[in-house]
Design brief:
The protein is α/β, with parallel strands linked by helices. It has ten helices and ten strands.
C-alpha cells in the first residue's frame, strides 16, 4: 500500500504522521516551504528536500549519511513504528523521493505511503487545511541503511558490460534522446548506454494521481525488457526516478526501490 487516498487520510488524520515534501524545479521560482507556511494539511511537518540531502557535494538531492538522517527524522518527532503519509504540492511528485529516503534508511515499507494526488487533489476536494505552526517533540530515531537500494556511477558503468539490472530513465524522451539541452548547466545531452526511457509524466493523471495498476503494467511491458532482472531508476537528479520506483512497487509487491542517486546530474557531466 504505497499509496493512500485523500478520503483515507481525512479519516485518519490523528493516527499518522504527515509530511509535506513540496519541492519545485529551480526555474519555477517557487518555494515549497513558503507555500507550506501559507497552507498545509493539519499536523503536516515540512521536509526540505534540498536541506535534508548530503552536504558538501555539488550534486543535488544525494542521500545523506545515517547519522544525519537520524537527526533529521528525530527533529521531526517521528518514531520507527510510526505510519507516515507524505504529500507534496509539486509538479514533479517530490513526495516520492521522501518515500524512497525513508525506505532506504530502513523504515518499514508497509508504514510509508504517498498521498495519491497530493495537496492539489486534497484542495480540489475542499478538505481542511491551515497555516498553523506545527510543534514537534523530538524523538530518538534509529535507522539502518539498505545499501542495496542505491547505485553509484561505478556500478552503472560496470553494468553496461555485466547487464545485471536494467536502468530506467524518468526524464522526457527528448532529454533522453539528446534532442534538447539539459536544464542544469554543465551537462551534456543524452542518456546512459543501454538504458530505457519511461517519462514519469506518463504515469500521472491530470489530477496528479497515479494511473491505474493495469495501465502502469502496460507502460513497463512496452519497454520490452527481461522482467526477471532488477530495475534501477534514474532521472535528472534522483527525484522523478522515485516516481517510477513507487509506480513499479504498485505492480510488484516484492520490489524495493533502487535508485541511481547521482542520476544524469552526475553521469552527464561535461
Amino acid at each position: 500500500m504505497s499509496l493512500v487516498e485523500t478520503d483515507w487520510l481525512f479519516d485518519n488524520l490523528n493516527k499518522v504522521k504527515i509530511i509535506d515534501c513540496s519541492w519545485h524545479m529551480p526555474q519555477t521560482k517557487r518555494n515549497g516551504f513558503e507555500e507550506y507556511k501559507k497552507s498545509h494539511i493539519p499536523g503536516a511537518i515540512f521536509f526540505d528536500l534540498d536541506e535534508n540531502s548530503k552536504k558538501n557535494i555539488n550534486l543535488p538531492h544525494m542521500l545523506t549519511n545515517k547519522q544525519d538522517w537520524e537527526k533529521i527524522v528525530s527533529r521531526m518527532g517521528i518514531n520507527l513504528n510510526d505510519e507516515i503519509i507524505i504529500y507534496d504540492n509539486s509538479d514533479v511528485i517530490s513526495a516520492c523521493r521522501c518515500w524512497y529516503n525513508f525506505i532506504y534508511f530502513g523504515h518499514n515499507p508497509k508504514l510509508v505511503h504517498v498521498l495519491n494526488g497530493g495537496l492539489k487533489k486534497w484542495n480540489k476536494e475542499n478538505k481542511i487545511t491551515n497555516n498553523d505552526e506545527v510543534i514537534t517533540k523530538s524523538s530518538k530515531y534509529s535507522c539502518t541503511e539498505n545499501i542495496v537500494l542505491v547505485k553509484s556511477k561505478k556500478q552503472i558503468d560496470e553494468n553496461i558490460k555485466k547487464n545485471e539490472f536494467h536502468v530506467i530513465d524518468a526524464r522526457s524522451r527528448d532529454r533522453f534522446e539528446g534532442k534538447v539541452p539539459e536544464p542544469r548547466k554543465g551537462l551534456r545531452s543524452g542518456s546512459i548506454k543501454n538504458s530505457f526511457c519511461l517519462p514519469y509524466s506518463e504515469l500521472i493523471n491530470e489530477d496528479h494521481t497515479f494511473i491505474s495498476k493495469d495501465e502502469i503494467l502496460k507502460k513497463f511491458k512496452s519497454l520490452k525488457f527481461d522482467f526477471s532482472q532488477n530495475l534501477v531508476f534514474s532521472c535528472g537528479s534522483g527525484v522523478t526516478a522515485s516516481v517510477l520506483a513507487l509506480a513499479y512497487s504498485l505492480i510488484n509487491d516484492k520490489y524495493r526501490p533502487c535508485i541511481y542517486d547521482g542520476s544524469w546530474a552526475e553521469y552527464g557531466r561535461i
